[in-house]
Design a protein that fits this description.
single chain; mainly alpha; 15 helices; elongated
């Protein structure tokens, strides 16, 4: 009996050791999990505002005029008549408008153009529009902040209004004035392409450059259709300047990295805003179990490193896919709030597709520029 009891005691000790070890494993896992969720500051951003194109002085920048406090916002709304006079495609590859600029179409709507351009509100708006196109610079001034006031549609409407003003000049036989104004408009649009910061800014820039080229096509057709107009020596200085601008576009390499860096900075700003939200900021230390600011920022950094590299050279870099983390099993165990926030930010967005589209539009623009230069015999 004594021997049996003495043998049973070591067995009990071994059993308790095994039980203790088994119990400690989940406790250790829980401790490590909690340790991983300590509140950390996010890493410094990979890029800053200094990596975006510089915004020129306000006094030089026509872009700012379109939304200046002295310019009533409602005055930039385009009337139904103006929309009915939209002769141009806009974006390369667009099916809207006329892909083949035709001066006869403009001639057939002469009276409607005259009526729209004579409108008092239109005249007041065009004073600002002409001033904007003649300023030394025309560069996007938007910053990647959450409450940014986007100017995209203002720029397109500005361009549409000036198109009608310049077409009327051509209809009235003022070909030097029409060609000079259209060249100023093209120069401003080209400056916007080179200095665009946001993805919206890049899209708008592509649209207005394409429309400028089509406008120049129309005015050149008007000159050809008028006997002796092409021999006007007053056209030559403008044609020389236009040839230089067209060559600049043909030789330029349009850089989508700026748009992706802008998107990156905007995403980081959004995460910072979530962290500053009173409901999130008031959470106790264990609140990082739900939203981990550091982990979310690192996920943004890792994704945009690959996206910006792809934008640098899409032909040699593998196409990136934005990974939020929710594609992995049991993702909700670590920073579910941050991962879901990224899922919302990128829902329906393919950065690689945006870059590919922009690349195609750039090639189309350069082709149009070469065709115009050939037509004007500027090559």
């Amino acid at each position: 009996m004594t021997v049996a009891l003495s043998e049973r005691a070591p067995r009990r000790r071994r059993t308790w050791v095994v039980v203790a070890l088994c119990a400690s494993v989940p406790l250790i896992c829980i401790a490590l999990w909690l340790l991983a969720h300590r509140i950390h500051e996010p890493p410094p951003p990979l890029w800053t505002l200094g990596d975006l194109p510089r915004v020129p002085a306000s006094s030089d920048n026509g872009y700012i005029l379109l939304d200046a406090p002295t310019t009533p916002r409602l005055s930039w709304l385009v009337s139904q008549d103006e929309e009915g006079l939209d002769f141009f495609c806009g974006a390369p590859g667009s099916e809207a408008g006329s892909a083949d600029p035709n001066w006869g179409e403009v001639l057939s709507r002469r009276q409607l153009i005259v009526d729209v351009v004579a409108d008092t509100d239109f005249i007041a708006r065009q004073r600002v529009g002409l001033d904007a196109s003649q300023r030394p610079r025309f560069a996007e001034d938007n910053d990647p902040v959450l409450d940014a006031d986007w100017h995209g549609m203002h720029v397109v409407r500005w361009h549409k209004g000036l198109e009608l003003t310049l077409l009327l000049r051509a209809l009235e036989g003022d070909f030097p004035g029409a060609l000079t104004g259209a060249t100023d408009l093209f120069r401003a649009a080209l400056d916007l392409v080179r200095t665009a910061r946001s993805f919206v800014g890049h899209l708008v820039a592509i649209v207005v450059v394409a429309r400028s080229i089509e406008l120049l096509h129309r005015i050149d057709m008007a000159i050809d259709a008028t006997e002796g107009a092409g021999d006007n020596p007053a056209l030559q200085p403008t044609l020389t300047r236009l040839g230089s601008l067209l060559q600049t576009l043909d030789e330029a390499t349009l850089d989508m990295r700026h748009a992706m860096i802008f998107e990156y900075l905007h995403s980081r700003a959004a995460i910072d805003a979530i962290a500053r939200d009173p409901e999130i900021a008031s959470l106790p230390p264990w609140g990082s179990l739900v939203f981990d600011r550091q982990d979310t920022a690192r996920r943004i950094d890792n994704n945009f490193q690959r996206i910006v590299e792809f934008a640098r050279d899409p032909s040699v870099t593998p196409e990136p896919e934005f990974r939020t983390g929710t594609e992995r099993p049991m993702w909700w165990l670590f920073n579910p709030g941050g991962q879901q926030a990224l899922e919302v930010f990128t829902s329906g967005v393919s950065y690689a597709a945006r870059i590919r589209t922009f690349e195609e539009q750039e090639a189309s623009l350069k082709l149009r520029a070469r065709e115009l230069a050939s037509r004007l015999q500027l090559e």
